[in-house]
Here is the input.
Amino acid sequence: MVNTTVFESASRAVDEGELLALCSDLGAELPQAVRLQRLVDLLRMQFRCGAVALLRLEDERLRPVAVNGLVGDALGRRFAVAQHPRLAAILARHEVTCFEHDSSLPDPYDGLLDTLVGEPLPVHDCMGVALHVDGRPWGVLTLDALATGTFGAAARARLARAVPLVEAVVRVARLEQELRTLRMAAAGGLSGGSASELPARTVGEAEIVGESPALARLLHELSVVAASELPVLLLGETGVGKELFARLLHQRSPRRGKPLVHVNCAALPESLAESELFGHVRGAFSGAVSDRPGRFEAAEGGTLFLDEVGELPLAVQAKLLRTLQNGEIQRLGADRPRSVNVRVVAATNRNLREQVASGAFRADLYHRLSVYPVPIPPLRERGNDVLLLAGRFLELNRARLGLRSLRLSPEAQLALRRYPWPGNVRELEHVISRAALKALSRGAQANAIVTLEPSLLDLDALAAPPGTGPAPAPASAPQAAAPAPLPAEPLTLRDAVDACQRRAIAGALERHGGNWARAARTLDVDASNLHKLARRLGLKS
Here is the structure.
């Protein structure tokens, strides 16, 4: 039970009816998200307005934590204070700020009201107030009404009287969250967690957008294992955001004040991989004109993130195993080892068990790295998270392209939910960015509300759901896996090159009945390099 003394001063300043309504849930123990959502729902009912939003200030951006009356993707958007003058004005004042119906300042919710989907906000009333907790700015509360005159002097006075109580509810929600976190840490278990029970995000910490049960379980698990020194192996399909989860692990670990060093193992030339990881001394090889520390030494005291660890050459795998076993490295060409204090987090989209069976990956290293394997769910298993993530990318592209408003039509939202997302979050980001650019190229005006329709998303409506597809080829004629659908307009040169390489390899394999050696000769590349390239491109497991 939360101590009710925090409400005494607030309760004297609010009408009895409002007090009973706002405090009705304070005696119950509720998750933070539920408590804040009930607060917003009640405020919209009391003020009889079109929309209410509660936004928290994080890194000079306002993050919606509870909304009523806005479209579903609003919770995924992040409103940069510097780009939204109304929100900046509310945040800068300690009293209620009201914008007249003819205010020329752009409204951050233009096109986002669920009763006016895709339409500009007509002449309307808008007011808001900054919220403070423990003497520090916490965020803002905003109210919008479509009927002018809704927020007269009486309504503004009522909101001013309610502010201390709203801040008290926010404070209680935060205290309850901290208590839950302490209880879970004391219990040491991984069951029953939810996103609302995780520690609050600190300044500069990686943000994971989503509210699905699958993501909540993953975040809770990571918050527990982050405090340990165990190696962690992040498993997941391409594009699920393994680097983002690795950053979260580091930032919630005792090593967060030390470096996080990222190594893309797939991009390391085989001849230089050992030197890159462990360093070298002068004269170790041609061109080594001075001593050079490797990535392990750069990560001293912190975390080394080995992305695509399955691509490491076998010789380097052996040295990595020794480092994990005894905490020592040896620079290439050096006579003596050096001690290092580094936590290793690895990631792969390959099946390392199969690579162990084929001899491409050391079994002993696999067991060392997979002390704590963490599967990351694909986007298709995260339900409505796709819309929250889409909201995030919509707001980013709105600001980047200088648009008044950028949103999805209801049909486009449905298309996003139905698509299987073989490229996961990365593919979603590219789809939204490409669709916004297409809309502008087809005549959309920057000062209008730009609505993205399914045709602009360019999704493959016939994309087969995961686990379906043609029957496997006979063993006598092995076939390469079909390449993932290619975007109509690759966003980067790397995308275009990868697409070209996929087509060339798939065509050569088809001409030679799945014979990799013959395909390599046709393409004039070394057979081992072709296998490695095909694995990176997703053509070979």
In short: Residues 1-14, 188-199, 464-490 have pLDDT under 50 and may be disordered. Residues 153-187 form the longest helix (35 residues).
